[in-house]
Amino acid sequence: MIQIIETGPFNTVQDLGRPGYRDIGVTASGAMDPLAVKIGNILVGNDEDAAAIEVQTFPFKLRFEAGGIFAVTGADGNPTLDGRELRSWCTHVAEPGQLLEIRQPPRFARAYIVFRGGLDVPVLMGSRSTSLRGGFGGNAGRPLSKGDQIEFGMPSDALPPPPSGLAVIEPAVALRHVFPAPTDGVLSIRAIVAGEHELFASEGEAFWGQIWRISSSSDRTGYRLSGEPLRPMATVEMRSHGVVPGVVQVPPGGEPIIQMSDANTAGGYPKIAGVVECDLWRLGQARIGSRLQFVRSTHAEARAVEQAVTRYVEDIRRTSQMVKRALKAMA
């Protein structure tokens, strides 16, 4: 069990989401950086979709009421356990009464705390994720509050981690050949043209050519972008249509909205582009005020990036299994 000692708004329990219910108006929710949750769960010996804590307002502190194995992934910056700095992207063992603190990270937006056994909150529509807009899931459908206590789930792995912990090279480093670092502070985001792209002059040149800034009106539902407004060549009336994370819509004001983890299930704004799925975790780690530029991509390139990420995750999974076999042999 853990107890929340200090938290801020919008820190929630999330897993990989609840797809399959958009037809009845239920958004998928789930982690803004699903890659961080997958890797953290592999490290601690969980199924990759076990529930974790998503921290996006800092500082965040919790106390281990019972001992546990955990990892902190996602945002850069070292967590501390009773004031002792720990490595991120690495397994650690906590004793009862120890205090884990996550401080404001230097660059990225969200940290994930993953516990062996996951978090024992109710499963609703196949997921433990918090839907803040719906007021259900996670920890009673709301952000975490000081004093909240949450039990660990039942672990499927009884082996302790290696004495020095099991660690990985974080995705931003290991996959830098497919996810280049920001240039002059500008994050490049791959996207594919969407259904109403041709409504905008010069094939959306103003969309692809300029640098956008994530505005303060952004949240888990969508990132609103500040920049030179986009104007369609003609006024059109559109029926509402299905919307998923990554869709970039252009409302009447002309400043695009990128649908994120709590994306609307339907909407009628023109769709100018769609962010490739494997780039969404990078957006999930982009802070308010971050600058980004869309790079016109193709389905083939999106597939190649997806394959590179899959190989990276599978390599971590194989390494974890090899370590488990070695520990069993030594037991």
From TrEMBL:
Instruction: Identify one Pfam family in the record.
Output: CT_A_B
Residues of the Carboxyltransferase domain: 23-312
Per its UniProt record, what InterPro entries does this chain match? CT_A_B, Cyclophilin-like_dom_sf, PxpC
UniProt organism field: Rhizobium dioscoreae
KW ATP-binding (keyword) present = yes
Q: What is this protein called?
A: Carboxyltransferase domain-containing protein
Is Transferase one of the keywords?
no
NCBIfam families assigned: urea_amlyse_rel
Q: Which UniProt keywords apply?
A: ATP-binding, Hydrolase, Nucleotide-binding
